[in-house]
Design a protein that fits this description.
The chain has about 650 residues and is an alpha+beta fold. It has five domains: about 100 residues, no CATH class; about 200 residues, Alkaline Phosphatase, subunit A (3-Layer(aba) Sandwich), CATH 3.40.720; about 40 residues, no CATH class; about 80 residues, Arylsulfatase, C-terminal domain (2-Layer Sandwich), CATH 3.30.1120; about 190 residues, Jelly Rolls (Sandwich), CATH 2.60.120.200. It has twelve helices and 23 strands. It has a six-stranded antiparallel sheet with strand order 13-23-14-19-20-21. The protein has a five-stranded antiparallel sheet with strand order 18-17-16-15-22, with no helix packed on it. It has a four-stranded mixed sheet with strand order 1-2-3-4. A hairpin with a 5-residue loop joins strand 19 and strand 20. Helix 1 packs parallel to helix 4. Bound molecules: calcium ion. The site of calcium ion has 11 residues, from strand 15. Calcium ion binds next to strand 15.
Length: about 650
């Protein structure tokens, strides 16, 4: 239910083998999106094994967090009414609180002014609360705002101290935190509806619930935050002026927003860094609430035993009284990595049964072992390698929960022991080889479905939208889009589209005009070519983009020409995107604009009516081989 980020990017489309989709992995039902994130107002929805349209629009009260709560209740009811005795398992993963931070205005406004003191002040306030509530031990110290030495992490992961910000920046950053708080509360309320349903239906007492987040707070918003993350994914800079102009719209369908790194550190208080820094608790520590009235007596208590998310499955198995099978359908199973936490339910002060846990992400390395933790001073994506030269830090986490004091110099033998243990665990768990490529390197490694040999794709109406990774790639290249359409006096609607208000293109007919709009990263004005719709009958309409250069800001610059049959009817200089139209969703669709509309000139889906679309051909032949050659050269350069 919700986010499923376990499918290879080239298998997001309907033509792919779906063995990695949830139903292929053994789930009976699925409702949600496939990929790392989605627009919370206009999600890319899949039910079971098929793409589906969202049941309502944002203006009618739609939000993804609410939708999956409704669907979770419906799924459990489905099972209960057809198989009343059958137990159920629900893995419920909202798109929240991942970016984009989208929430109803009334929830955002509840937090007005609450973050005006800035992130350093917030850290002090929240640590005090955590200690008072017993979530952290007395004496737990704050770590520095920018704890890493220069050269060991990327600039984009640094934090600008609050007192160095302009008044406008403070206003913008505070609002971003208010949006995030509203988003969190709204999601919590929706999950609360599922819990209420369990209670009403008499299922709550014997349902084992684990309520937690994944990783630390996210530092992907850069030191300045973002109003449209797609800019980042296209290598196009954010600017504070255009972000400020959207202050009042933050969290609405008009923004695709993320708070700055300062809040990522603050929301990972009291630890160092944030998500992606797996070696520090700031990248990994989360609160976990376990609820099971029939299963244990403890109520409202806190547990301090060290545990890790790998321990959740063993806990579920022990609570259910079943052993992990060694073989399933003739396939030998990978042994479980974790240790059950069941003992801790009734034993507040029992020592942890966990002994060792390694950490690795994007080449960051850490290892916890019997109350000590070793961490390398090597941030993610620094594109440097030289892992043998990394300096290990050492923390005595039994006494220093926030990993504030590096004891590596006092205990060199301990450091050696833990570093060797990390390597052994890494080998055992298929962690190697390490890779700390930067954003560009990772992009170049990303697998994309190869274009057809002749560089031509054909799309038809009445079909499923095609996700970006599998669609004709019009990013950073020359392309032709040609549609074969039977026009009549009433022809209207989208012929073909891809993307959203944050970037994309659309060919459509409106008010007896054929229009092509290329929306560059949502930055006005929309680039447009138009001509009168042709006379009734069969025609070819479309555009050709001839790329001429690549700007310093990663814009593909060139000439866009609109055609009706073999006649050029308009031409202008256009800039086009080179990175992504969307990270997930907003695929290529014929005869409609799925999800969020590309252009302000219509509301989606604006389906084509009056006349008939036969097919739409994309031709990227001029660039196919150039692209492959460049990729090959890049691959060789790496060796
Ligand atoms: Ca769209």
């Amino acid at each position: 239910m919700g986010k499923n980020h376990n499918v290879p990017v080239d298998a997001f489309d309907i033509g792919a083998n779906r063995k990695h989709w949830p139903l292929g992995l053994g789930y009976d039902r699925f409702y949600g999106f496939i990929g790392g994130e989605t627009n919370q107002w206009y999600p890319e929805l899949i039910e079971d094994n098929h793409f589906v349209d969202q049941p309502a629009k944002p203006e009618d009260g739609y939000h993804f967090s609410k939708d999956i709560a409704d669907k979770a209740i419906a799924f459990i009811r489905d099972t209960k009414q057809s198989r009343p005795e059958k137990p159920w398992y629900l893995w419920y993963c909202p798109g929240a609180n991942h970016a984009p931070h989208h929430a109803p205005r009334e929830y955002i406004d509840k937090y007005k002014g609450k973050f005006d003191d800035g992130y350093e002040a917030y850290r002090e306030w929240v640590l005090k609360q955590m200690i008072e509530k017993g979530v952290l031990p007395k004496g737990t110290e704050l770590t520095p705002l920018n704890p890493m030495r220069e050269g060991t992490y990327i600039d984009g992961d640094s934090v600008r101290p609050w007192n160095s910000l302009s008044a406008d920046e403070k206003k913008l950053f505070s609002r971003m935190a208010e949006v995030y708080a509203g988003y969190s509360e709204y999601t919590d309320v929706q999950i609360g509806r599922v819990i209420d349903y369990l209670q009403e239906s008499g299922q709550l007492d014997n349902t084992l619930i684990f309520y937690c987040a994944d990783n630390g707070a996210s530092g992907e918003g850069s030191p300045n935050g973002s109003v449209n993350e797609d800019r980042f994914f296209n290598g196009y800079p954010d600017d504070i002026k255009s972000n400020l102009a959207m202050l009042d719209k933050l969290g609405s369908p008009d923004t695709y927003n993320h708070y700055p790194t300062g809040w990522a550190v603050a929301f990972s208080t009291p630890y160092r860094m944030f998500k992606r820094y797996s070696q520090y608790a700031g990248g990994t520590a989360d609160p976990l609430v376990i609820h099971w009235p029939k299963g244990f007596k403890a109520r409202g208590e806190v547990r301090h035993q060290y545990h890790h998310c790998t321990d959740i499955v063993p806990t579920i198995l022990e609570c259910c009284g079943i052993a992990m099978p060694e073989v399933v359908d003739g396939v030998k199973q990978t042994p479980l990595a974790g240790v059950s936490m069941r003992y801790s339910f009734d034993a507040k002060d029992a020592p942890t049964r966990k002994e060792t846990q390694y950490y690795e992400m994007l080449s960051t390395r850490g290892i916890w072992h019997k109350g000590w933790k070793a961490s390398t001073e090597h941030g993610p994506m620094i594109d440097k390698g030289e892992f043998d030269k990394d300096r290990w830090q050492l923390f005595h986490t039994d006494a220093d929960r926030s990993e504030a004091h590096d004891l590596a110099e006092q205990h060199p033998e301990k450091v050696k022991e833990l570093a060797a243990l990390w390597l052994a665990e890494a080998k055992k768990n298929n962690v190697l080889p390490l890779n700390d490529y930067g954003v560009r390197g990772i992009h170049s490694l990303e697998y994309k479905v190869a274009p057809p040999k002749d560089g031509r794709y054909t799309y038809y109406p009445g079909t499923t939208e095609v996700p970006e990774a599998s669609a004709a790639r019009t990013l950073g290249v020359s392309f032709k889009i040609l549609a074969e359409v039977e026009f009549n006096e009433d022809s209207e609607g989208v012929i073909v589209s891809q993307g959203s208000r944050f970037g994309g293109y659309t060919l459509f007919v409106k008010d007896r005009q054929v229009n092509f709009i290329y929306n560059f990263l949502g930055i006005p004005p929309e680039q447009k070519l138009s001509c009168p719709a042709p006379a009734s009958g069969k025609h070819i309409v479309g555009v050709e983009f001839k790329k001429q250069s690549l700007s310093k800001l990663n814009e593909a610059l060139g000439k866009m020409t609109l055609y009706v049959d073999d006649k050029a009817v308009g031409s202008a200089d256009f800039r086009t995107q080179t990175g992504h139209y969307a990270l997930a969703g907003e695929g290529l669709a014929v005869a409609r604009d799925t999800g969020d509309p590309v252009s302000k000139e219509y509301s989606a889906p604006f389906p084509f009516s009056g006349g008939q679309i036969f097919k739409v051909i994309f031709d990227i032949a001029d660039d196919v081989y150039v692209d492959q050659e460049r990729r090959l050269a890049a691959a060789l350069a790496r060796d």
